[in-house]
Write a structure and sequence with these properties.
Elements: H1 31-35, H2 45-54, H3 58-72, E1 76-80, H4 86-107, H5 110-113, E2 115-125, E3 128-137, E4 143-146, E5 153-158, E6 161-163, E7 168-172, H6 190-212, E8 214-219, E9 224-226, E10 232-234, H7 235-247, H8 262-267, E11 279-284, H9 290-307, H10 323-361, E12 369-373, H11 378-393, H12 398-404, H13 407-414, H14 427-439, H15 446-449, H16 454-460, H17 464-472
Antiparallel strand pairs: 1-12, 2-3, 2-7, 4-5, 5-6, 8-11, 9-10
Length: 473
């Protein structure tokens, strides 16, 4: 039998049946790199402290909720491969339903820290090995244990407690290679957006204090002056007493005397008020730079949102641009959140659901039941809502809307309540009715000229107002 050859005309070599590279990890970012920590060692607590401080920034707070809310609110469902026993799906459903809400919320903290680890607390229930709980672990108290030669995962360590791989689950966000610590999304903004934002807001506080404050200034002649009781007192000391009284909001009195050179200046036509020996004036800050500081803060606000992968018009008020642009920003934010959700589902399937299937039904049950997003893609739902809004505000195309689309299903998918189940009219009858309308244009009513026949109005009359309000909401 002839030996099989490849396209280059040489016999293919057999692959080497072992892993040859070492663990794949990247140096830590920012503070951790300056402190000299290795990613295969412990993650520095200072880094997590900074990330917690960053969550206190108002713009970061709204960016976090805008990025994670579509994931928290997403509907999920269990899917199965062909010929999978119903028992498998029902078992996973019973396990996942009570655990999922807390699990997904804790996993999203991986966006902040780059990773989120869990302890799997097992128990036997009804002769099945199940999760008693999935306990979220603090990242600054937890160390990843890996084989430094191959990068193989060996478990987690908290102080003197070593958790083996079968008792842990790690969600890694934006990880490279075998780097289980992942990469915090705050690293997108820490240096070039968050830190400048903090510094600018400090300058704004200083500026506000300067502008709001009024500083009294007293000009006094050299030498001494007589007090009301005839004592000679230093003019400097008297001026300081006046300043103290002004600072407390008290009034003061002083003699109405002229400067020594006043006579010559009066002959030159100088204002008498400018010739007094004692003068009180006030230094007031000018408000000309506040607008520049506000513009800079708004610029860094945009960078904070973008670093969290949230287009700024999707979460904050718009300064320029159109409503259509804001809608596009919203669609882009939903699309990026959906990508994150798909990765989260993949890791849950691999490291949470598969162990349950394998331990209880054998290796062949792996991947037979898996978690998936239920319903339509969020961007498609937004598109359908927008389309419904267009039809209701300009109903001239309602006949086409009814003829080519499954209205009842669309309303169910986008979550718009219905007053009654909708039965679409027969397309052939719609065409006949349209032909008759064209033949009798002179007898058409105003509603029929807009494409709304009496029969269509009868179908939609009871829900038109409710749909319009719901779609705009």
């Amino acid at each position: 039998m002839a030996k099989k050859i490849d396209v280059a005309g040489t016999a293919p070599e057999k692959p080497i049946m072992e892993e040859m590279t070492k663990g794949q990890a990247v140096p830590m970012h920012g503070l951790a790199a300056m402190m000299g920590f290795d990613l295969l060692g412990r993650a520095p607590s200072g880094k997590y402290k900074i990330y917690r401080q960053m969550r206190g920034c108002p713009t970061v707070a709204i960016a976090r909720i805008a990025a994670t809310a579509p994931i928290l609110l997403a509907n999920w469902a269990l899917e199965t491969q062909d010929k999978v026993p119903d028992e498998h799906k029902e078992f996973i459903q019973r396990q996942l339903t009570p655990l999922y809400p807390r699990l997904i919320k804790d996993m999203l903290r991986g966006f902040d820290y780059g990773w989120q680890s869990f302890e799997k607390v097992w128990e036997i229930r009804e002769n099945k090995l199940v999760y008693k709980k999935l306990k979220a672990l603090l990242p600054d108290q937890t160390l990843v244990q890996v084989d430094k030669t191959t990068g193989a995962f060996l478990g987690l360590k908290q102080k003197n407690v070593l958790l083996p791989p079968q008792n842990v689950f790690i969600y890694s966000h934006d990880a490279e290679g075998t780097d289980l610590y992942g990469r915090s999304r705050h690293e997108n903004i820490r240096e070039h957006a968050w830190h400048p934002w903090i510094e600018i807001t400090k300058k704004m506080r200083m500026y506000a204090t300067k502008v709001a404050g009024i500083i009294p200034m007293i000009e006094y002649p050299p030498g001494t002056s007589k007090t009301v009781d005839g004592r000679e007192e230093s003019n400097f000391k008297l001026a300081m007493m006046f300043l103290e009284a002004l600072g407390k909001g008290k009034g003061l009195t002083m003699p109405n005397t002229l400067a020594a050179h006043a006579t010559d200046l009066m002959r030159a036509g100088i204002d008498l008020d400018q010739l007094r020996a004692w003068k009180i004036s006030f230094l007031e800050g000018k408000g000309s730079h506040g607008k520049d500081l506000t513009t800079m803060v708004r610029y860094f606000d945009s960078l904070l949102l973008r670093g969290w992968l949230v287009p700024e018009r999707a979460a904050t008020e718009g300064q320029f641009g159109t409503k259509a642009e804001a809608v596009q920003h919203g669609q882009l934010a939903l699309m990026m959140a959906d990508l994150d959700y798909q990765e989260i589902l993949r890791q849950v399937n691999d490291y949470v659901i598969n162990p349950l299937l394998i331990y209880n039904f054998g290796l062949q049950a792996a991947d037979s039941v898996y978690l998936a997003r239920a319903g339509l893609d969020p961007a498609i739902v937004l598109f359908l809502r927008t389309m419904i809004d267009k039809v209701l505000t300009a109903p001239i195309n309602t006949d086409l809307f009814l003829e080519y689309l499954d209205i009842d299903r669309i309303l169910d998918e986008v979550g718009i309540p219905k007053a009654a189940e909708i039965v679409a009219p027969d397309p052939n009858k719609l065409k006949d009715r349209k032909n008759k309308q064209q033949q009798s244009k002179g007898k058409e009513t105003e509603e029929e000229k807009m494409g709304m026949t009496r029969s269509l109005k009868a179908i939609y009359g009871n829900i038109l107002k409710e749909l319009s309000n719901a779609s705009r909401g």
